[in-house]
Amino acid sequence: IATMGASQTRSEHKYKDLMDKTGFSLEQIKNLHKRFQHLSGNEETISRENLDTIPGLANNPIRKQIIEAFFDKRNQHENEVGSLEEIGFEQFLMVMSHFRPPTLKTTEEEKEVMRKEKLRFLFNMHDTDNDGTITLVEYRKVVEELLSKSGAIGLEAAKAIADAAMLEVASTNVPHMAPDDFYEGITFEHFEQILKGLEMETRMHIRFLDVDTTTMRCGKSAS
């Protein structure tokens, strides 16, 4: 019994540590731990293959980018770069924390930090070569996949729309930026400017893990 008590205390300390690091509540962490165990088959780590089997991701045009984001060291809040082969539960939680919605107790200052973290996560997802800029080629690739996989238009039309959309948004939000500068790539600061008016808190949540991050409850949704 003493051993069980000590083990439970260790577990509680571990959860408390994770609560401090991620901002999740104890209930949210326990829910996400169940989902992690399901994905990993009760193993200590998950790999890209584990995420690749999620039905809700099967038809997602940016499936590859979403999966890679979980193994990108830049999303671990540790100022490291590179890619991981597998991730444990704590690393999984760190990535999921980018989708954490604000609560009634969240201050304006904390909301701003959360917004910046979400934008950084999105930026990293587009900055596939990890050079600190999103080039038109990288941006175009994502838009092309989104548009061409919808089957409505061809690849050339998708390219034209991607170029036009990026330059239109840039000229509106970053007026001093010339088109030639834009083709060289946009920095995170430019990216922030471009998405300045976008309300991130409700838009950036995730359903493909059968976890609705607006509540962090496990469910049957496969979208």
TrEMBL record:
<dbReference type="GO" id="GO:0030027">
    <property type="term" value="C:lamellipodium"/>
</dbReference>
<comment type="similarity">
    <text>Belongs to the calcineurin regulatory subunit family. CHP subfamily.</text>
</comment>
<keyword id="KW-0539">Nucleus</keyword>
<dbReference type="GO" id="GO:0030154">
    <property type="term" value="P:cell differentiation"/>
</dbReference>
<dbReference type="InterPro" id="IPR002048">
    <property type="entry name" value="EF_hand_dom"/>
</dbReference>
<dbReference type="InterPro" id="IPR052490">
    <property type="entry name" value="CHP3"/>
</dbReference>
<keyword id="KW-0449">Lipoprotein</keyword>
<dbReference type="GO" id="GO:0005737">
    <property type="term" value="C:cytoplasm"/>
</dbReference>
<dbReference type="InterPro" id="IPR018247">
    <property type="entry name" value="EF_Hand_1_Ca_BS"/>
</dbReference>
<feature type="domain" description="EF-hand">
    <location>
        <begin position="114"/>
        <end position="149"/>
    </location>
</feature>
<keyword id="KW-0479">Metal-binding</keyword>
<keyword id="KW-0966">Cell projection</keyword>
<dbReference type="InterPro" id="IPR011992">
    <property type="entry name" value="EF-hand-dom_pair"/>
</dbReference>
<keyword id="KW-0221">Differentiation</keyword>
<keyword id="KW-0519">Myristate</keyword>
<keyword id="KW-1003">Cell membrane</keyword>
<dbReference type="Pfam" id="PF13405">
    <property type="entry name" value="EF-hand_6"/>
</dbReference>
<keyword id="KW-0472">Membrane</keyword>
<protein>
    <recommendedName>
        <fullName>Calcineurin B homologous protein 3</fullName>
    </recommendedName>
</protein>
<keyword id="KW-0106">Calcium</keyword>
<keyword id="KW-0649">Protein kinase inhibitor</keyword>
<dbReference type="GO" id="GO:0004860">
    <property type="term" value="F:protein kinase inhibitor activity"/>
</dbReference>
<dbReference type="GO" id="GO:0005509">
    <property type="term" value="F:calcium ion binding"/>
</dbReference>
<keyword id="KW-0963">Cytoplasm</keyword>
<dbReference type="GO" id="GO:0032587">
    <property type="term" value="C:ruffle membrane"/>
</dbReference>
<dbReference type="GO" id="GO:0005634">
    <property type="term" value="C:nucleus"/>
</dbReference>
